[in-house]
Design goal:
single chain; alpha/beta; five-stranded parallel sheet; 26 strands
C-alpha cells in the first residue's frame, strides 16, 4: 500500500507516523512546500521575544530521523491537483504520482486583508521558521511595528516586539483583545499590562492600506496614519484547501473539509486532518476550523491509523486552549459568556479570584476562573481563565469535565491538592463552581 500525505505540519507528520505504525509495510510519502517539517511554529514569537534562545530548539526531529523511520519526505515540493478517479496527484517536477490512500493536511493561511499595499516589503506573517529566521534580523533593524488584528499569534508578538524595544501599535476592530473568543474581564489584565508597557492600542479601528515606496513606511487606518517599519498580520486562520477542491471534496460552512469521525472525506480513499478540516463542537455542534496544534496532531494520528487499515475514531472537540501574553496566561474550554450569548444559549456564570499557591509561599500568583453552566442540566458549558500560572492544567481538567457531563455541583465539591508550593487550600475552580451553584 502507498499512502501519500500532503502537508508536513503537526497533522501531516502525525498522520505519516501513525500510518507507518498501523501498516509497517506501507510506503509513506509526504509532500511539503516548505524547507522543513516537524518544528513548532507556536514557539516562533517566543524566539522573537528572546524568551527562547534560538530557532533551532524548535525542531522536533531531524530529516535523517524520518528517513530511518521509513517516511519519505519531499521538501519544497508543490502538489497542484488531485485526480480522485485515477488516484493520482500532480506534483511539480515529478509529474503524476499514484496513491492508494491520500491524507490531506494542508493546514491554514492568514486571511488576506485584501488591502492596497499588501505586496510591500515589511509585512510579516508569522508561520514558516525559515522566514522567521530572516525576519528576526529585520526586527533588529526596525524601530516601529503595527499589529493588524489581535489573533493568538499576534497577541504573543505584541509582547515580543516590546521586549525587543520596538514601538508597537495594535489596530483591531474589536472593543478589546481577542473579543471574538474571550470575555472582556478575562483579557483585561493583558490589556492593562500592555498599556504599562507602552503599547498603543486602537480598538474599534481598521487598517485600510499599507503605504510606502516598495517598503512599508506607514499604515493607513480609519482613524489616521500610523508610522511603521513592519506590520504583523494577525488576521484569522483560513483553511488552505486549494488542492482539495480539485478533487471535488465537500467543504463545510467554515471553508474547511467535512470529515467523519474516522477523518474520511466525501471522496473514497481520501482522508483529511488539521486546520484544513472542520470539526463539530461538542457543546454547540457548530463546526469549528483552525484549532490548536494538539488537535491537529490528534486528528492526523486518527487519519493515519485509519488510512493504514486499522481503526480509530476522533470525537467532537471541547477545545481546551491556553496561551501566554506578556506575563499573563490565558486559557479556557469550549467558549465563554460572549460566545454563549451570541449562540443564544441559556447559561449561568460563576467567578472566583484566587491564588495559585499558599499566600505565604514565594512566587504566589493570582488566578481568575470563570465557569459557565447550563441552568437546566447544571452541566458545564465552558470556562475561561487568566492567571500567573496553572492555566494549562485547569483547562485540561475542565475540558474533560465538560466532555463527560460533570455538573457544577460535583466541581463545587471536588477534591483538590493542597501543598503550599503548588496549590492553595481553596481551589479556584471549586470556589467558582460554588459561586455558580449559589445562583442556581
Amino acid at each position: 500500500m502507498k499512502i501519500v500525505v500532503i502537508g508536513g505540519g503537526a497533522a501531516g507528520l502525525g498522520a505519516a507516523g501513525a500510518a507507518k505504525g498501523a501498516n509497517p509495510s506501507a510506503d509513506i510519502v509526504v509532500y511539503t512546500e516548505f524547507e522543513d517539517v516537524a518544528y513548532s511554529p507556536c514557539g516562533i514569537p517566543f524566539v522573537h521575544g528572546k524568551e527562547i534562545e534560538s530557532f533551532e530548539t524548535l525542531f522536533l526531529a531531524t530529516k535523517e530521523q524520518y528517513v530511518k523511520s521509513g517516511i519519505d519526505v519531499h521538501y519544497e515540493t508543490t502538489v497542484t491537483s488531485i485526480d480522485a478517479a485515477a488516484k493520482t496527484i500532480a506534483v511539480e517536477g515529478e509529474g503524476n504520482v499514484s496513491y492508494d490512500r491520500l491524507i490531506l493536511a494542508t493546514g491554514w493561511l492568514y486571511a488576506d486583508p485584501g488591502l492596497p499595499g499588501s505586496d510591500l516589503e515589511g509585512l510579516y506573517r508569522v508561520k514558516d521558521i525559515r522566514r522567521a529566521m530572516e525576519w528576526d534580523k529585520v526586527i533588529d533593524e526596525s524601530k516601529s511595528a503595527v499589529i493588524v488584528e489581535s489573533g493568538f499569534i499576534a497577541m504573543e508578538m505584541t509582547s515580543a516586539l516590546r521586549h525587543r524595544g520596538l514601538e508597537v501599535t495594535l489596530v483591531d476592530p474589536g472593543p478589546y483583545p481577542m473579543s471574538d473568543v474571550a470575555d472582556p474581564e478575562i483579557v483585561e489584565p493583558v490589556r492593562a499590562q500592555w498599556e504599562e508597557m507602552g503599547v498603543e492600542m486602537q480598538w474599534g479601528n481598521n487598517v485600510t492600506a499599507f503605504r510606502g515606496n516598495g517598503k512599508l513606511t506607514h499604515v493607513e487606518t480609519e482613524k489616521g496614519d500610523v508610522t511603521a517599519d513592519i506590520a504583523i498580520i494577525g488576521t484569522h486562520k483560513v483553511p488552505n484547501n486549494r488542492v482539495a477542491k480539485t478533487a471535488g471534496i465537500k467543504m463545510g460552512t467554515t471553508g474547511g473539509i467535512i470529515v467523519d469521525s474516522h477523518m474520511r472525506t466525501s471522496v473514497d480513499g481520501i482522508f483529511a486532518a488539521g486546520d484544513c478540516t472542520e470539526i463539530p463542537h461538542g457543546v454547540s455542534n457548530v463546526p469549528l476550523q483552525g484549532l490548536s496544534g494538539s488537535h491537529a496532531y490528534a486528528q492526523g494520528k486518527t487519519a493515519g491509523i485509519n488510512a493504514g487499515g486499522a481503526d480509530r475514531e476522533y470525537r467532537s472537540v471541547y477545545v481546551p486552549w491556553g496561551m501566554l501574553a506578556g506575563e499573563w496566561m490565558l486559557g479556557g474550554v469550549s467558549f465563554g459568556e460572549v460566545t454563549a450569548t451570541a449562540l443564544g444559549m441559556e447559561f449561568v456564570t460563576g467567578v472566583a479570584n484566587g491564588i495559585t499557591r499558599a499566600r505565604y509561599y514565594p512566587g504566589v500568583k493570582p488566578i481568575t476562573v470563570k465557569l459557565i453552566a447550563d441552568p437546566a442540566s447544571r452541566k458545564l458549558l465552558g470556562a475561561q481563565m487568566v492567571g500567573g500560572e496553572g492555566i494549562k492544567e485547569r483547562a485540561d481538567f475542565l475540558a474533560m469535565m465538560t466532555r463527560t457531563g460533570i455538573t457544577v455541583d460535583q466541581i463545587a465539591n471536588m477534591e483538590n491538592v493542597y501543598s503550599p508550593a503548588i496549590g492553595a487550600l481553596n481551589e479556584p475552580m471549586a470556589v467558582a463552581a460554588q459561586n455558580l451553584v449559589s445562583k442556581l
